[in-house]
Write a structure and sequence with these properties.
Blueprint (H helix, E strand, L loop, with lengths): L2 E3 L5 E3 L5 H6 L31 H8 L16 H4 L1 H10 L10 E2 L5 E3 L20 E5 L2 E5 L12 H9 L3 H5 L8 E10 L3 H8 L6 H4 L1 H5 L1 E10 L3 E8 L13 E7 L3 E6 L2 E11 L2 E10 L7 H29 L15 H14 L3
Antiparallel strand pairs: 1-2, 3-4, 5-6, 7-13, 8-9, 9-10, 10-11, 11-12, 12-13
Bound molecules: fe (ii) ion.
The site of fe (ii) ion has 5 residues, from loops.
Length: 364
């Protein structure tokens, strides 16, 4: 499976690199308007861009979240982060890689071979419009590509550099917890969810807060008292021990589960003989696509009964999360709501995610 990791951590699977879809969506246009409601610091329309390329309204939304406030006193980002099209436009600019496609033809070495419909163009040199070289490395089952405005010459790039960029000091704990290339990719499932992409991330990052309420079956397979969260530079890791196995001996979760969130939109889940990855792709302000890839220990890939039952249970959990996320989005769109609070002992990873986003969006 190919995974593309941008300079600032954006992760896109090869299949979903249809970035023109992002760019053609109304919400990614700088000309889009806000929702027209005027709840202070919650919703706003873009005002003329400043020299920094960020409008006053966008800046105001970014600054409405203060990462300096300690977690027990912290206020969550305003609802405009989840509902305002101009905020999504800013995220596309600052958080996600942008690309374009014009039907031009390139050689395998990136040289521009043919440029279509440029009759009449002046001073055009094909040599100056080749593809930009990118640093590539592998880590476990992932292929990482580093986007950089000033690409490192190939000979100076090493796997360690890319690994450090992507996972930072979390790479060790991940590599010693079974996230490796010996697992076999068995299937992919894709879900379209009617919520902002960050709602899915927030739900994932709540330290198991919602698990006993939203996932009764999953909760019975986990020892939720053992839930813990570790925070790294761009990665947060939630860990939980497994609970008792089913009466019939079925156990897809094993003795421990590890849930790693790699900023901004990629998740790696390792439990029992399974690993699944979740890629969250923003589609519009209120819609995202989540792509699940499932990997299984090779000793079990022929056990169709185990595989099907595991996937069924996982599917049920996803459906429960979709109901939850879509409900949260509806709540965020209520004019009565602006910001909330964090549960300090469980939602550390969510706060970390918001602080990372603020740093990226506010880095002007
Ligand atoms: Fe969930």
């Amino acid at each position: 499976m190919a995974i593309v990791v941008a300079k600032i951590g954006t992760v896109l699977s090869a299949k979903t690199l249809a970035l023109e879809r992002f760019l053609s969506s109304p919400s990614s246009s700088s000309s889009t308007r806000g929702l027209g409601l005027r709840v202070v610091a919650c919703r706003s329309s873009p005002s003329p861009s400043t020299e920094t390329g960020i409008s006053r309204a966008q800046r105001s939304m970014v600054e409405a979240f203060d990462p300096e406030i300690p977690l027990p006193e912290a206020i969550t980002p305003p609802s405009s982060w989840y509902t305002d099209p101009s905020f999504l436009a800013l995220e596309f600019d600052r958080v996600f890689f942008r690309g374009w496609q014009a039907g031009w033809t390139y050689g395998l070495d990136g040289t521009l071979l043919k440029a279509t419909r440029i009759t009449g163009i002046k001073n055009f040199k094909k040599d100056e419009f080749g593809l930009i070289p990118l640093a590539v490395a592998t880590w476990g089952p992932f292929v990482l590509i580093r986007f950089d405005r000033h690409p490192v010459p190939h000979q100076n790039c090493c796997i360690k550099t890319v690994e450090n960029d992507w996972l930072g000091s979390a790479s060790n704990i991940l590599s010693t917890n079974g996230i490796d290339s010996s697992l076999k990719h068995v299937c992919r499932r894709e879900y379209t969810i009617q919520c902002n992409w960050k709602v899915f991330c927030d739900n994932y990052l709540d330290g198991g807060y919602h698990v006993p309420y939203a996932h009764g079956d999953l909760a019975s397979g986990l020892n939720l008292d053992s839930y813990s969260t570790l925070i790294f530079e761009k990665v947060s890791i939630q860990r939980c021990e497994g609970g008792p196995t089913d009466k019939d001996g079925f156990d897809r979760l094993g003795s421990k589960a590890l849930y790693a969130f790699v900023y901004p939109n990629f998740m790696i889940n390792r439990y029992g003989p399974w690993m699944d990855t979740n890629l969250v792709v923003p589609v519009t302000t209120t819609k995202c696509q989540v792509i699940f890839d499932y990997f299984l220990d090779v000793s079990l890939v022929d056990d169709k009964v185990f595989m099907e039952r595991s996937l069924e249970e996982s599917e049920r959990v996803q459906m429960e999360d979709i109901v939850l996320c879509e409900g949260v989005q509806r709540g965020l769109e209520s004019p009565a709501y602006c910001s909330g609070r964090y549960a300090p002992t469980v939602e550390m990873a969510m706060h970390h995610f918001h602080c990372r986003l603020h740093e990226c969006l506010g880095n002007i």
